[in-house]
Amino acid sequence: MAETPGDKEFSAALEELKRRSGRSYHWIGQQVNASKSTVYRYCAGHSVPRDFATVERLAKACQADRAETAALCRLWMRAVETAEAPGRPEETQVLSAVGSVDQSADVPVPRPPTRPKKREGGRRRRVFTYLVAAVVTGLLLGTTAASAGPPRLRELQLRHSAQWIPGPDWVSSPTPVPSTHFGVTINSTTGTMPSFRTGAVRLWDSGTRWANLEPQRGEFDWSVLDRLVGGARRAGLPALFVLGGTPRWASPNGPVGPYDDDSRAAPPDRLADWDAFVRALVHRYRGRIEAYELWVLANDARFYNGSVETLIEMTRRAGRIIRAADPQATVVCPGMGRLWDPDGMDVLRRFAELGGYRHCDVAGVKLYQRTASDPPETMLDLTHKVDEVLHGAGVHPPVWNTGTMYEIPLQDPLDSRRATNYAVRFYLVGLYARKVNIERMYFYNWGGTRIPIVLQAEGGSPTGAALAVEQLQRWLGHARIRSCSHGLPAGLPSNVWECEFTVTESQRDHQATIRWTDTGTATTTAGPDVRAVRRLNGSTVLVQPGDPVTITGEPVLIEQ
User: Fold this and answer.
1) Mean pLDDT of the 254-277 span
2) Cβ–Cβ < 8 Å for 129, 80
């Protein structure tokens, strides 16, 4: 299949970006939801992407800067102008490229020398191609939507099947941002709590598995959990206790779990033993433990290898016992991780379809990037998938993000700047995902150091990442969230995210926006009421309306 000059230029530019990034075709394909052979065809000039969103994701995966992304977009526009998608009207090919963010099919490169006859539709298509190129590259380079192209753009987009929907991702009446949104998982047995500001703690990897607490049937050792619960109460932090790790005596033939305490990944042979443990636990800590997560990683065979039906029965029994003994406690359904894996999502789906969430107050899921170096915003792909599964099952529980992947200690540490930005954006992504019922975010973890982002080693001082998270909480201490937006539909550069708040101070309200990029930098313009830009290090820059405001991966607070 022959190339046209436009295809050759686009593929050469993409191949150079790929080469420079050092990434494989397979890795890039994972980032853009395409196969490695598809990415190879793009780089070899055998096909070009159908939509602009894929071009943008390719550029991002290859770590292109704004200028390089804009240049790649222009080359793509030139290539796609000469491509013919079979069975599609000429004028709609470029329209769908901008209006759709879900398509990933290839556009075959045409075979010269055959050329179609000139048609009026072709002329309109070329005019529209140049218009879109101006809009897209203008936005990538930081210009405003108003200056990027004429108003007729939106009318043209709305006339075609790939509907362009301008505006925020979601809007609601102002809703308080609770301190409990900012949770951490405690990786300690001492009862020491974080010395920086946080809003809730989760107890796991803290010597409090079932096998630790009940080493023999009916014999309990509460010493470690007493210290942890006491420390949380002294710090004024609500505690979420996580159940898991069946004792050997309760399942002698069950597979050994991933810990050195001989705990088992199987459910107990007698569910009466489960009932007795839950009852003893809740009666002892009634009024002192706020919530109970009924298993740690219920869709991972390393932690639970029983059937979904048994898991639901354990959930039903535990929920009934907890509500009878401590009606104020929150029942969190078994945690579901491995959600990038279709098998993991299938267990979540089956648990929902079989009615498991009827026995809980909250759904527990593990939201994380595919790799720790991926932008936190990629977690939103999981939130949408989880929401689709729950919606399909007809259930809509609040959702708490209660952890990460088991392999997190194997991930490379992040540099200080990225660790700081990613820690803050972890919690901002949780706020962004409020439209799909995300209520809490528990960062993993506090106290440990064998993880990509360290907040505070036990016995040490808070890191820069922890202090930045504390600053974010100060910004939002008296805030109510109103909306969140991303990119082109909101009139922002394509890499920019923002959430808007109403902040009450001294009995007066003012508006504020937190804005950041998922990669690279962007330039926005201070609005008519903007007076200051606050940074995570505590500094403030005064600005005038119309001043340029540079946005990076470090979130900033823009105050009106």
Assistant:
1) 97
2) yes
Structure confidence at residue 23 (pLDDT)? 87
- Look at residue 8 and give its three-state secondary structure: helix
Q: What is the DSSP string of 409-459?
A: GGSPPPPHHHHHHHHHHHHHHHHHGGGGTEEEEEEEEEB--SSSS-S-BTT
Which amino acid would we find at residue 339? L
Count of residues in the chain: 560
Amino acid at the residue 255: P
Kind and range of the H or E run holding 400 = strand 399-401
Q: Which of 351, 431, 427 is nearest to 392 (CA)?
A: 351
Q: How far apart are CA 213 and CA 235, in angstroms?
A: 23
- Please state the rounded mean pLDDT for residues 500-522: 96
CA separation for the pair 498, 174 (Å, rounded): 15
Crossing angle of helices 66-81 and 5-21, in 10° steps, is: 150
Q: What is the pTM of this model?
A: 0.76
Specify burial of residue 222 (Cβ count, 10 A radius: 0-12, 13-18, 19+): middle
Question: What's the token pair of residue 219?
Answer: 């014999």
CA distance 521 to 515: 11
The strand pairing partners of 505, in sequence order, are 508
Q: Is 177 helix (H, G, I), strand (E, B) or coil?
A: coil
Q: Which parts of 45-196 fold into alpha helices (H)? A: 52-61, 66-81, 90-99, 120-140, 145-148, 152-158
Q: Which residues have C-beta within 8 Å of that of residue 464, sequence separation ≥ 6? A: 416, 419, 420
Give the single-character DSSP code of 336: B
* Residues 336/351, Cβ–Cβ less than 8 Å: yes
- Using CA atoms, how far residue 401 sits from 53, 272, 310, 362, in Å, is 28, 30, 23, 10
